[in-house]
Write a structure and sequence with these properties.
The complex is a heterotrimer of chains A (74), B (100) and C (251). Chain A has helices at 3-37, 42-72. By secondary structure, chain A is mostly helical. The longest helix of chain C has 44 residues, at 161-204. Chain C has 251 residues and is mostly helical. Chain C has one domain (2-11, 32-148, 175-247). The chains are: A mainly alpha (74), B mainly alpha (100), C mainly alpha (251).
Chain lengths: 74, 100, 251
């Protein structure tokens, strides 16, 4: 049963990377669309996009921390 | 090669260094770099809060309360840093808009 | 654990072994590889710059050109652009950080050496140094009361102020520590990839496949030079932004 901790950690990281990359890709794509439609608000859209990317990144990093805790303190 | 470590007279500033900064370029690229660090910053502040609360708990024997408090403080610190950054960006943009 | 099952543990290289045991008042001051290579990196930077300064000429050539262009770049691109004219006095600190991180990560690419910045304790030490210096600069510039006042937005009720203190402390500490974690993770990951490529040669034990890992190692080593430059630049430029925030404080 000891190996199951590693399995759990790997599944967690894999899901976080999957969800994070999917959402960042979608987010940037939608922002690009909006920017090309309305170039005059491109600056504001970019700021919002960067903040949202930071949030998504933070969530993925939380998963990384939990996985590292799982592996290191079993 | 030995006298390398002997020279300790005041180290001079090289001749080419005292140049004026370019006024043309805006600092939005530096803001971008700051944003690149934002996600990791939020996680690190929560970790610092949790670690600090846990150590205080071990020292004072008040398990889990200070850990929870540290968690909340850490999350608040991360969000405060983010809010400051957004406010600074907005201010910069307004300044540029007024200038233009 | 992995050593028994597979024969090779890529993390083994990054474990610290004491070279010279030293215990003072119950604290472990042992000299390990990280300490040794930190000293070597410091000695390399110091001797290059001190030598150049000792043999400087009015019309630079050779190593003086290199040193002057690096310092010029750091002054113009980082200090003057991010902090401005008021930040001139902090230039030696930021230049030293940049050169130390760059030198120690480039020295780590020499086979048989050790990268001190691939150890979280070294980078966390750098981060704590940055934290203390930023706070000291802020307090010196605005005075203790003025500096603390700068953190409080106007119109905040007074009962919330004691709550703000730990939150601000965590927030200020998190900024340099996130840089430390970023630097450490980048360096460690790059070196682990190189080590994994190298251990593939031993694991596969087949001569026809051997060129592939070697090509991988060469490409990764070239990439590591790039990563070392980028990471030391990011560390110093973000340190400069933290200094800028402490110097140009809103009131």
């Amino acid at each position: 049963m000891e190996g199951m901790t590693y399995v759990g950690a790997v599944i967690g990281i894999a899901l976080a990377a999957f969800g994070g990359s999917l959402s960042i890709g979608w987010l940037v794509g939608k922002t690009m669309e909006a920017m090309s439609r309305q170039p005059e608000v491109a600056g504001e859209l970019r700021t919002t996009m960067l903040i949202s990317i930071a949030f998504i990144e933070a969530l993925a990093l939380y998963t990384l921390v939990v996985a590292l805790l799982l592996v290191m303190t079993k | 090669m030995i006298e390398v470590f002997v020279c300790c007279e005041s180290l001079p500033v090289p001749t080419g260094v005292s140049l004026k900064p370019d006024k043309k370029q805006d600092n939005s690229w530096y803001m971008l770099r700051r944003y690149a660090n934002l996600g990791i910053e939020m996680v690190v502040s929560v970790l610092i809060g949790a670690w600090g609360g846990n150590s205080l708990d071990k020292w004072l024997g008040t398990r889990p309360w200070l850990l929870l408090l540290g968690f909340i403080f850490g999350a608040a610190a991360g969000f405060l840093n983010m809010a400051r950054l957004i406010a600074a960006t907005e201010k910069n943009r307004n300044k540029e808009k007024n200038k233009a | 654990m992995a050593e028994e099952s597979k024969g090779i543990d890529p993390l083994h290289h990054f474990e610290l072994h004491s070279l010279f045991d030293l215990h003072i008042a119950g604290i472990d001051f042992s000299i390990n590889q990280a300490v040794l290579w930190t000293w070597i990196a410091g000695a390399v930077v110091f001797s290059l710059f001190a030598w150049t300064a000792a043999t400087r000429k009015r019309y630079p050539k050779g190593k003086q050109n290199l040193v002057e262009s690096v310092l010029d770049f750091l002054m113009k691109e980082i200090v003057l652009k991010v902090i401005g004219e008021e930040g001139r006095f902090i230039f030696p600190f930021i230049a030293t950080l940049f050169l130390f991180i760059l030198t120690s990560s480039l020295l780590g690419l020499i086979p048989g050496s050790f990268t001190p910045v691939a150890n979280i304790n070294v980078t966390a030490g750098l981060a704590i140094m940055v934290f203390v210096t930023v706070q000291a600069v802020g307090v010196k510039r605005h005075g203790l009361v003025g500096y603390l006042k700068g953190f409080v937005p106007p119109g905040v009720p007074s009962w919330i102020l004691p709550l703000m203190l730990p939150i601000e402390f965590i927030g200020q500490l998190a900024k340099p520590l996130s840089l430390a974690i970023r630097l450490f993770a980048n360096m460690l990951a790059g070196h682990i990839v190189i080590l994994v490529f190298l251990s593939l040669i031993i694991l596969l034990k087949s001569i026809p496949v051997t060129p592939l890992p070697i090509v991988g190692v060469v490409i990764m080593s070239a990439f590591e030079i790039f990563v070392a430059l980028i990471q030391s630049f990011i560390f110093s430029i973000l340190t400069a932004t933290y200094f800028a925030a402490a110097i140009h404080m809103e009131h």
